[in-house]
Every structure is written in structure tokens, then in C-alpha cells.
Design a protein that fits this description.
homodimer, 382 residues, alpha+beta, BirA Bifunctional Protein, domain 2, 3-stranded antiparallel sheet, 15 helices, 11 strands, aa-tRNA-synth_II (chains A, B), aminoacyl-trna synthetase (chains A, B), ATP binding (chains A, B)
Chain lengths: 382, 382
């Protein structure tokens, strides 16, 4: 290093300090500097010199080995697409070439499905996705890295759920195994207990017993085989807890959140990490989920994070019908629907944000800690 | 598979046929169907059902192991950036939020340098880069996947050149080792001889001898230690061959192409692959390369492909001066220049297009064969 300015905007020491350290000093009458988030992001190249931040970004690059070993092919689908992605207002429009309106993909969903129609069998992608949402929430970014998976189904949708289980157990195992130094470095500044394989709880089919079993655990971590609740079991738990539910209703967001928080509150609180699968087959589906046939949701950390998975509709005629019923002009998505006309295997998949995953694994409170150069409605640099 | 339309736009058999097969049939009086490129791209999900295409995309996902094992951290830098990327007209503009003009990054160059200033030591990225160039050339795309590498330099720029050597040897080794089935599948439709480690040629310091040595080889492939020509040796070769060169001139594109084609023509022609390093230290630099201090260019396949590498200027004051001299308004790139004010180690790096790399390795004639859903000025779907 040479010719650095003699005074940095903040010292690396200040930036590396834990909240606890600052508070203890404060109680002892000493006022230590607290480096705020915006300053950190303005000078991200200083902020990342702290051991915790170094560790966070090294943790992020360990997730794809398992998928490759399971025969998945890593693909790269385009960020620039025609029309308006999956619709809605949360799309960034683009001046492509003169006569072509374009936008940035809100997810690789359509293209990974086309890859399945293209004979790949199993694909995944780690790449940027774009959401023009005017949100400054601690878990929202306008550009983030999606880990998206799609696979052909041989017999039953449970294959997709099994893959979610095995993938995340493998990711967490691998993080614990390969990144112990990095996890320690994060924990020194942002204390957390790393998630651990938690196989001592016996999996019961009865959801009440399950939750009771989990409650007894002193350290809740990830289960090698994730808690899997059927729709009707979820309904039962909610109604037992006095939450009003319509047993013939949709698997809507509020319903999910209620159940997640119920599960969450039932558990010991010394772990911030928790996965459950809710799953639903063959019921009516909310209209915005045009391509969904059966769904699962993994809930993590008090409903904060969802890995949403679904079996897709793979029959072009049904898709067209559904689009019509949802008020979508079929012509605008014809290249997508056409992909299913020439033979399409049953398939399903899921997606999760990479920065969110690391944020939750490390018990961090803001996604701006795990995105290297975060983008939100007010931040487009550095 | 169910309910496929009875007639496909083209048969997988037709799409899987090699040119040779079509021509042999034609000589025997039989007219076989040739599926053209646009039709393949319109129905990419059919085209990818051919063994060769399946193989091509499986080959692409094997490149990052070596870098991780060398202590590089995989990073994800933003695609959406403020201002106009590295300038020029080849930039896609974006409606970010109301008061913020944005664009798509033409390369992760600035951000990977900031990561080096941020203490990462060694970083790489595999991610999309965007070029709004109105080109339909066989090697140009408007969105492609860049493999970009940046590293701190301990003593000398040769460390970066060594890394290029070792990385590409490792990638080629790994492709040959892990993807032999896939390479065979490609070769059945698009005949090529896979590149092979070619260590039997002794490396001579004298460039004339070197080229002579390579000429004797019956199969030219990659050298474990790449042919490395110093600027003045390159000048000498060109002037020996009757090409007019200014020994005090810049390392310009035409100069590079001349030398590459000279090297290329000097060699046996049974391999399409060739790497040489041209390198230049401390001479005057063309103005558009504001951040360059010393450069190398790897030339592959008759100057078609370049891995351009460079040591960057890491002193903010020099950068500011250089920007001024190049007519760039320093204010527009101030967050970039500021990153060097608070301590920046000497560093350098290089980048290459992933689709181009696979295209060249497999001796393919068009990048649209190695990009899953290619984007060019006329093609923004599917």
C-alpha cells in the first residue's frame, strides 16, 4: 500500500467493532465511534477490509458444488429480455435497440423452464435478478443474486422438496466445514451461533408432536430432513392456535406468515434459523401464480425468508387457459407458452436470494451487509 | 413427455447432424435438411436437445474451481451502475428511479478493482456484461458472460501473466479430464480436435526459434508455459516479416492482429487453438486505456480472441491526471478514483468471455452456439 490519504473516512478498527463492544464501552463511560451503514456503503472498499466483511463474501461463494455433483448443469440466462418480464410495475425498462422495448429479468424462471424443455433435466443459475421495488426494507434490494433451481420430475413433486432439503443441508454442512474461520470472523463482530445439523429430534408425522419435540431442543438448527407440513396440518395448527383460517382457501401470504410465526414462537429462541416446508397439491391457486401447479414454501427465521418452490404447469393448453383467466394477454408470452408445445416433462423448482441466505445463516440484520455493492432506490453507486 | 405437438419445427435428428454428414449425403444424391441458426435460436429449447448442445453447456460450468483453490474470492458486482459505465456509445441506458440515470455495466472492471482496494487480495467474477454494439459478427453478443479476474501484485506484473498461464492450463486440463464425453458429443456434430497439453516443445527465449519449434509440431495445443513475447521481440518478428512497425509506437489493435496472424500462419494448421502473451511495460499508452500501466494480451486462434490483461494504475493522482489528459471529466468517475485514495495495492487482472472461450476450445464458428439464449441487436427473445 502506498500514498494512502493520511485520514480515512473511518478507521477499520471502528468499522470492525461489535455492537456489544460499543455498548460495554459506553457503560464504562467511553464513547466509541459507530460507523453507520450509509457511510460504510459509500466507502465499501474500506468497509470490506474488516474481518467480518471479508468473511461474509468468502462464505457466499461456496454454494454450487452440491448441485453440480447431483447432475445439475449451471446455466446463464439473459438479464435483458423482451416485453415486461413477469409483468407488474416492479420492472426496470431498458432502451434496447431502436425498435425493441426491453427490460431486466425479474427472475430466470421462464428461461430455466425453457432449459428444462430443452432437455437439460436439471439446471441451476447463480445470477443477478432485478426488482424495481421502491422499498428500503432491510431485506430488499433492487438487484440481487438469485440461486435458482429447476428440475425434471420423474414421479412426484416430493422429489423437488427432497432436493430442497438435501441442497440446503449440503450448503450449511459445507459452510460449517469449509468456512469455520470466516464464520468465526463474522461472529466476532456480529455475534451469532452457526446453524448446525440437528438430527437428535425425531421427526414425527403429527405436527403437534413435532413442534413439541422441537421446543424441547436447547439449540435449534437445521434438520437433515426438514419439517414438512401438509396443507391440512397447517390449517389445523393455526385453528388450534385460534387463528381464523378458511380450510378451502388459498395458501396466501398472510396465512404463511401466521403459520411461520406460530412455528417460530413455539420454538426455543436460541437459534435464528429454522426451515419448514408447507406444501399444497392440486388446490386452487391465486391468479398471479399463473404457472403453478403445486407449491411448497420453505419458511426460515420467523417467516422472514421464503424459499418458494413449485411444480410448474407443463401443458401449453392449460397455461394458455390460465393466462386468459388471469387477464394476461397470451400473445405477450407466446414464446414462453410455445416452449411447452413440443414436448415438456413435468418439472418444478425453487429460488432463493444468495445474499439473504448468507444474511440469515449469519444472523445478520440487513442485506446490505451481504451484498457487495448494494442497489436500492436511492443507491446506484459506487 | 406428453401432449407434444405431432410435428416439431425441425427434427432433433436434423438438428444433430454434422455438416460433413449433410455433404456426404448430398454427394450421394440425398438432400438432408440443414437447420439454420435463426430457426435454432427461435426454438432454442429444441436445439438444446441435441447431444452437442447439451455438451456445450455442460462444458461451460467447469471453470471456477482452479481460482477458488488459488485463494480467489468469487464476487458479484452490480450490473446496474450510475452514469455511463466506461463511456462510449456501446452502453445500454436504463430508467432506474426517477432522478437517477443508470446503465448496464460494460464490464466489472471498476468494481473488481474496488474489491481489491477493499482488501480481498484476489477476486473473480462470472457474470453478465452488456455491450450495445450494433454488430452481428459471429463473435459478438450484446449480453455475454464475462470471466473477470483481478489480483493484488506482490512484486511484479509477471505474477498476473503467470496466473493467466496457470488458469487457462487448469481450465483446459479440467475440461479434458471432466468433460471427455461432452467433448466427444460436440466433436461428433462439429468435428474438432480437443486442445491438449503440449509440453514437448521446448520453450526458447528467442522468438524466432520458438516459432520454428512450434512449426515442427504436428499437433499444436496449449503450452503449460505460454509463449511470451516481449514488445521488442514482437516488433522484430513483424519487421522481419516485412510488416511496417514503429518501434516507439503503441501496442495498438492492428499491430496485435498483425502479429497474431503472423504467429498463426507460422504454425501447423491442425489445431485452431493457440495462446501467446504479448507484453509491454511502461511505454506510452493509448488514451482510451486510462487505467492501464502495463499490458498483456493473450492471443488465441489467429487473433480472433484476446484475453486482455493489464496492471492498473493504483495511484489516485496519476489516475486523475490521466483522466484529464484523456478528456474525461474527473467528476463523473470520482467514486472510482476515490477508491484509490485510502490505500490501494498494486494490482492487475484480465478478462475473457466465457462463451468465446468454449467456442474456441471446441473450434466452433459462432458464439450463438455457446450462448444459451443469445442477445444481439435483432434478437431479444426467447
Amino acid at each position: 500500500m502506498r500514498r494512502a490519504l493520511p485520514t480515512l473516512p473511518f478507521s477499520i478498527e471502528d468499522a470492525a467493532r461489535s455492537e456489544q463492544e460499543i455498548e460495554e464501552a459506553s457503560q464504562a463511560g467511553e464513547q466509541l465511534v459507530r460507523v453507520n451503514q450509509d457511510t460504510r456503503l459509500d466507502f465499501r472498499y474500506l468497509d470490506t477490509r474488516t474481518p467480518a466483511k471479508q468473511a461474509i463474501f468468502r462464505i457466499q461463494c461456496q454454494v454450487s458444488d452440491f448441485l453440480l455433483s447431483e447432475g445439475f448443469c449451471e446455466i446463464h440466462t439473459p438479464s435483458v429480455i423482451a416485453g415486461s418480464s413477469e409483468g407488474g410495475s416492479a420492472v426496470f425498462k431498458l432502451d434496447y435497440f431502436k425498435d425493441k422495448p426491453g427490460c431486466l429479468a425479474q427472475s430466470p424462471q421462464l428461461h430455466k423452464q425453457m432449459a428444462i424443455c430443452g432437455g437439460f433435466g436439471r439446471v441451476f443459475e447463480v445470477g443477478p435478478v432485478f426488482r424495481a421495488e421502491k422499498s428500503f426494507a432491510h431485506r430488499h434490494l433492487c438487484e440481487f443474486i438469485g440461486l435458482d433451481v429447476e428440475m425434471q420430475i420423474e414421479k412426484h413433486y416430493s422429489e423437488v422438496m427432497d432436493m430442497v432439503d438435501r441442497l440446503f443441508a449440503a450448503i450449511f454442512d459445507s459452510l460449517n466445514e469449509k468456512c469455520s474461520q470466516e464464520l468465526d470472523a463474522v461472529a466476532r463482530q456480529y455475534p451469532f451461533k452457526p446453524a448446525r445439523d440437528f438430527t437428535s429430534v425425531e421427526i414425527e408425522t403429527d405436527s403437534q408432536q413435532l413442534v413439541a419435540g422441537i421446543r424441547q431442543a436447547t439449540q435449534l438448527d437445521y434438520l437433515r430432513k426438514t419439517l414438512r407440513l401438509r396443507f391440512e396440518e397447517g390449517i389445523q395448527m393455526l385453528s388450534d392456535a385460534g387463528v381464523e383460517v378458511d380450510p378451502y382457501g388459498d395458501l396466501n401470504t398472510k396465512w404463511r406468515e401466521n403459520l411461520a410465526s406460530l412455528l417460530w414462537r413455539s420454538m426455543t429462541l436460541n437459534s435464528k434459523f429454522f426451515i419448514a416446508i408447507l406444501w399444497l397439491l392440486g388446490l386452487s391457486i391465486p391468479c398471479h401464480d399463473m404457472m403453478t401447479q403445486s407449491t411448497t414454501t420453505h419458511l426460515m427465521s420467523s417467516s422472514e425468508e421464503k424459499i418458494s418452490g413449485a411444480q410448474r404447469i407443463h401443458v401449453a393448453e392449460v397455461l394458455s387457459e390460465r393466462a386468459g383467466a388471469c387477464g394476461i394477454d397470451v400473445n405477450t408470452i407466446s414464446t414462453y407458452i410455445d416452449a411447452f408445445r413440443y414436448g415438456a416433462p413435468p418439472h418444478g423448482g425453487f429460488g432463493v436470494g444468495l445474499e439473504r441466505l448468507v444474511m440469515l445463516f449469519c444472523g445478520l440484520n440487513n442485506i446490505r451487509k451481504t451484498s457487495l455493492f448494494p442497489r436500492d432506490p436511492k443507491r446506484i453507486s459506487p
